[in-house]
From TrEMBL:
Organism: Kushneria aurantia
EC number: 3.1.1.106
Boundaries of every Macro domain copy: 1-180
Protein name listed in UniProt: O-acetyl-ADP-ribose deacetylase
Family matches, as InterPro entries: Macro_dom, Macro_dom-like
Assigned keywords, A-Z: Hydrolase
Class of the enzyme per the UniProt entry, highest EC level: hydrolase
Molecular-function GO term, any one: O-acetyl-ADP-ribose deacetylase activity
Cross-referenced Gene3D superfamilies: Leucine Aminopeptidase, subunit E, domain 1
Pfam hit, one: Macro
PROSITE patterns documented for this protein: MACRO (PS51154)
Length: 185
């Protein structure tokens, strides 16, 4: 499936396996234990190798003894990944009747801020919270687009949204189109 570009080429939307990307950092949709889990978290831990778990254990001990709260970010190396770093974040668990979009936005915003502090230029995100955590895909896409429209005005960083399924990539493009974001192939 082709890549779609938005925001002067600074936002790329494509379908793929985030563990294979050669970028400064990939973002992990972790859980607060940071000890790995299912979905993209498990895939990242498998591809990065056991050193990632050791690094996460050290993060827990040193910085987050009670676990990483939703919306926060933590940095490790990428170890066996092609990505140099992993930015771990914890998305909100979707709750009907409670708006957790601010927390979801914080995941993206804090990851971008950390990447900038580290002088990174390329960053890739999975669809945080839209798997096991149950966040409706289109509502999440609206949050992502709003954050990116604000954050990517400065041209110092390129962001990839790496969707595991072609259906998700198409659904994202449909939301972007509905909200009036110009795209180029
Ligand atoms: P969460 O717990 O935050 O909902 P999940 O890992 O359950 O996180 O799902 C988040 C998204 O990541 C889902 O759309 C899932 O299909 C996707 N995903 C799973 N494995 C990969 C992968 N290797 N690369 C990119 N995305 C992935």
């Amino acid at each position: 499936m082709a890549t779609t570009h938005y925001m002067n080429g600074r936002l790329k939307v494509f379908c793929g396996d985030i563990t294979t990307l050669e970028v400064d950092a990939i973002v992990n949709a972790a859980n607060s234990s940071l000890m790995g889990g299912g979905g993209v978290d498990g895939a990242i831990h498998r591809a990065a190798g056991g050193q990632l778990k050791a690094a996460c254990r050290e993060l827990r001990r040193r910085d987050w003894p009670d676990g990483l709260p939703a919306g926060e970010v933590a940095l490790t190396e990428g170890f066996a990944l092609s990505a140099r770093y992993v930015i771990h974040t914890v998305g909100p668990v979707y709750a009907r009747g409670e708006d957790r979009s601010v927390t979801l936005a914080a995941c993206y915003r804090n990851a971008l801020a950390l990447a900038r502090r580290q002088r990174m230029h390329t960053l890739a995100f999975p669809a945080i919270s839209t798997g096991v955590y149950g966040y409706p895909f289109e509502a999440a896409a609206e949050v992502v687009l709003e954050v990116m429209a604000g954050e990517l005005a400065e041209g110092d960083i390129e962001v990839g949204l790496c969707f595991f399924s072609a259906d998700d990539a198409r659904a994202f493009d449909a939301v972007a189109q509905r909200l009036g974001h110009d795209s180029t192939a």
